[in-house]
Each structure stands twice: as structure tokens, then as C-alpha cells.
Amino acid sequence: MNIHEYQAKAVLKEFGVPVSRGVAVFSADEAEKAANELGGPLWVVKSQIHAGGRGKGKFKEAAAGEKGGVRLAKSVDEVKTFVSQMLGNTLVTIQTGPAGKQVNRIYIEDGSDIEKEFYLSLLVDRATSRVSFVVSTEGGMDIEEVAHNTPEKIVSFSVDPATGIMPHHGRTVAKALGLTGDLAKQANTVVAQLYTAFVAKDMEMLEINPLIITTQGQLKALDAKVSFDSNSLYRHPDVVALRDESEEDAKEIEASKYDLAYIALDGTIGCMVNGAGLAMATLDIIKLYGEEPANFLDVGGGASEEKVTAAFKIITSDPNVKGILVNIFGGIMKCDVIARGVIAAVKAVGLQVPLVVRLEGTNVEEGKTIIRESGLNVIPADDLDDAAQKIVNAVKGAR
Fold it and tell me: Which positions does UniProt annotate for ATP binding (predicted)?
């Protein structure tokens, strides 16, 4: 689960991490009050969307002006103008794709006098099963570019969970960033605070880009991007309360209600599969035969008829779907359950596109019989390769 920058900074502030003062606003009317509350003389007006690259992004609408999604304002009137231009308009960045994201909230923050910018992030390293730090002197830049062009400028290390964060970790960060004296002490403190926050809140990723040194000699998190492990959210109702569903795909929100692993994609063939590995293989073979999958959907190993019905309804709610492939290998999941779920869903929402069903495994003959006797216009398939070719040909033939 992702949250906005202003929310991430509020979480980090609970653990003592130094951040600038700021106020989130949801309407242009709130902008003047927020600007006066902060006092100026320099304000930073930041679009709040779940995507990076906001500063370099561009708005689709001419009314939003030509500047990006992060702007410096030198007066209260300028703050009000920027907020009015940005709110409700669509910001396109390198991470949003061409569709962009609508800006529904703005963060107005005190301006900072910046002397240096650094990059610092924490994430779970699957290779070591530990929390790892990634640090670079090249703050304010895309870390992917730094990794590609100047990998020697990136320092990474992991923290042993048996010991937790230790002073030598802070010294490693300070050395990597070329910090000495009081700034090295500040780095040691901030590193400990960030690690504590990461573990306490079950974060998946914590990125500060940039971490700055102000001209007053203070380390400060000027930006913050945080995502949480969705499997741990039951432990953190305060984090769940930060969820902004307007930033998420409506189909993905509906899928989460049924504990379905669903990710919307840009293709034309809807997929319902059980098992993440089989789902990935299904997506790959659809691409192999010249079409694009419209989603990743894993109904899981023990799905009920209700769950299968919900999954099918979610797939058919996507207007881009021109064909559906159901690919089930019944181990724990029973093929007859899938068959009944598909039939129930088709009767509930109708079937306007070609449907190919491949069943194999537990109760497969019963499942095939249910499908065959249902009267539905279903194309049966013998195996995955056969299923992929049939749905691709059906979609192409319908054009």
C-alpha cells in the first residue's frame, strides 16, 4: 500500500526524522490560510499523487500552466495561483504513463535553503532476507540513471535483524555521503530513526530523494516515498486510515475485498488463473502469440464459487477486455468449483466476448461436464498452448 508524501513525512516525524513544516490542502480556498500559517517567504507547492517524477512532470490541461507538479512560490498570491492551476488537473510523469493521474490534493511546504542533495532508501533485500540501505551522493536524480551510468556512486548494505541498527551503520552512511563532524552525528541519528520506522510500521520501501543538507547545517528529508507490506496492514489500522482509494484502480480495490491477487494491465485478454506462477506463464504465452493480457489475476488455491464469480465480474468490468481465458490447474482448487463460478458470473453479467476455458486436475471431468451442459458459448482447450492460441485467434477474428 502506498501513501502520499505529506502522509509519509507525518509518519517519519513520529520517529523524530527531521522534515520541513507543511500543510496539506484539498481545495483552492484552503491555500491562502495554509500559506499564511507557514509564513514564507518561500513556499513549495507540491502535487500529491502516487508516482515519482512530479517535478519533471507536465499537466495535460493548458489551464494548469507549463510548470511541473512541484513549484516554488514567492508570495501568498502565487501559492493560491499554483494550487488553483494544479488541483483537479491531470499530471503526467515518467511513472504514471501517458494517462497520468488527477491531482486531488496539494502539499504546501516551507522552502529550504539547500547546500547539498543526497539519495537514501531502505528496502527489503530478498537475496539476504534483510532490510538494506541504498545510499548515494547523487540526490535529486533518478536512482536508476545513477545505477546505470555511475554505479560506483551507490553504496548499499544490509542490517542483521539479530542486532538491529548499530552505530557502525550510521558511520557507513556518513562516510558514503562524505559527512564529518556534527553532520556525521546527525546522519547516525537519522539512519537509526529511519530503520526504526521501517521495521515498526512494516514498510516495504522507504525512499528519501533528496535527503539534504541545509545552509544552516541540518540534515533533512526533503521528500519521502513510503509503501507498506499489505500483508501486515491488519497490525496497523493507523496506516490503513491513510489509504487513498482515488489513487488506485477501482477493479483492484474490488478485488482486494475478495482477497484476490489482481493487477490491471493494458491489454485485451482478461485472465483468470490459479497460482502466481501459472498466471505469469499465461500472460507470457498470450504475448508470445501476439496479444496483450488485460490483467494478472490469481484466484488462489482454495477459492470459493463466490470468489470465482467476483473475479469473473471484475474481468468483464474492464471495457478493454475483448476475450477471456480461464486457465485452471486443480490441485487444492477444484475444477468443478471454477466451472460453477464461471457459469454463475456469466448468468449475472452476461458474456459479450469470446471465452476460452482450460481445466486440468482435481474434478476436471466434472468441471468440463458442467461447462459443456451449461449451454454457454465456451471454447474448450486441451492445454495452455492450445488455450492461448484459441483466445488470441478468437480476439483477432472478432476485430
Answer: 46, 53-55, 109, 112, 117
274 annotated as a binding-site residue: yes
Is the peptide bond preceding residue 41 cis, with omega within 30 degrees of 0? yes
C-alpha cell at 242: 491513510
- Would residue 207 show up in a list of annotated catalytic residues for this protein? yes
Closest CA to 368 of 332, 324, 338: 338
Report all structural domains of the chain as residue ranges with CATH numbers, in order of start. 21-110 (3.30.1490.20), 114-239 (3.30.470.20), 249-397 (3.40.50.261)
- 117 marked among binding-site residues: yes
Ligand-binding annotation for 333, yes or no, is yes
For 221, residues 6+ apart whose C-beta sits below 8 A from its C-beta are: 9, 12, 17, 18, 19, 190, 208, 211
| DSSP helix, strand, coil percent of the chain (3-state; round to 5) | 40, 25, 35
Q: What is the DSSP string of 57-112?
A: -EESSGGG-SS-SEEEESSHHHHHHHHHHHTTSEEE-TTT-TT-EE---EEEEE--
Flag whether 55 is marked binding. Answer: yes
pLDDT digits (tens, 9 = 90+) for 192-230: 999 999 999 999 999 999 999 999 999 999 999 999 998
- Partnered with residue 159 across adjacent β-strands are 131
Q: Which of 5, 6, 138, 207 is catalytic?
A: 207
Q: What are 46's strand-pairing partners?
A: 70, 107
Q: What is the pLDDT of residues 101-127, one digit of tens each?
A: 999 999 999 999 999 999 999 999 988
DSSP 19: B
